[in-house]
Structures are given as C-alpha cells and as structure tokens.
Write a structure and sequence with these properties.
Helix content: 25-40%
CATH superfamily: Cytidine Deaminase, domain 2
Number of strands: 5
Strand content: 25-35%
Structural class: alpha+beta
Order of helices and strands: HEEHEHEEH
Shape: globular
Bound molecules: tetrahydrodeoxyuridine
Length: 131
C-alpha cells in the first residue's frame, strides 16, 4: 500500500512550519509492525535549529517505542522528487536496512523510488566501532 504513505505524507505536509524557506515537506514511514508515523519540517528563526520532516517522523516512531522502518515516503512541492538531506539519510539508515525503499515524491505526481543503501553508500554504522 505505498499510496497510503503518500496520502499521509501530503496530509502532514500541510502542518509544516516553514515561514523562512516556504518549502513545506511531509514524511510518512511504515514500521515493520505496520504502524505509520508522520512528520513535517519545523523551521526556527534561528535557522540551524529547524528540523526536517524525516526527523519528525523518526522521532514520532521512537516515541511510540518502534525502531524498524519498512518503508518511507517524502513529499514536497518541488519540480523533481525531493531527496532527503545528508543528515536525514544518516537518520533513516539508523532505523532501516539498506534494502528499504525510500520514495521521493512531488505534489504534482512525480515519484522516484530508491533504497537506503543507494542514498547512503558506505554508511557509517555500529560495525565500524567494533574493536
Ligand atoms: N527539508 C526537509 O524537511 N526534508 C528534506 O528531505 C529536505 C529539506 C526541509 C528543511 C527546511 O525546512 C526546508 O526543507 C528547506 O531546506
């Protein structure tokens, strides 16, 4: 049911707080248990304090006690499907296997599906901290 994530991402995007960029983003993820969590970007007058839509969805997932992303969709009103920023790629990789699908979508109906591993090749992970 990939479309229910797109619908949820579009819906939560409406609640984005983006008065500085005027670029609203919505994200919706499904956990391996089937639960759906959403997030929108929340900007701040102190610009670096703003948070991305993906970070919001991940925070909601963790707050509910879930930890494993099965799929995630991000949507914005951009000319081409909006890719997660570098920081969000690392945040997604914390909770998703490399083969998990990340769907990037536009409000006008374009979409592109990639995997977490494609977005973040050579990711730093816990194995790199083994002695
Ligand atoms: N943004 C996201 O929320 N997710 C992305 O994947 C790309 C960028 C937000 C951050 C900021 O509020 C606005 O888009 C412009 O960069």
């Amino acid at each position: 049911m990939p479309d229910d994530l797109l619908t949820a991402a579009k819906q939560v995007r409406e609640n984005a707080h983006a008065p500085y960029s005027n670029f609203k983003v919505g994200a919706a993820l499904r956990t391996t248990d089937g639960a759906v969590f959403t997030g929108c970007n929340v900007e701040n007058v102190a610009y670096p304090e703003g948070t991305c839509a993906e970070a919001g969805a991940i925070a909601a997932m963790c707050a509910a006690g879930a930890r494993e992303i099965a799929e995630i969709t991000v949507v914005a009103d951009s000319p081409t499907p909006v890719p997660p920023c570098g920081g969000c790629r690392q945040k997604i990789a914390e909770f998703a296997r490399g083969d998990v699908t990340v769907t990037m979508a536009t409000m006008s109906g374009a979409s592109q599906a990639v995997t977490v591993a494609e977005l973040l090749p050579g990711a730093f992970d816990a194995s790199h901290m083994e002695a």
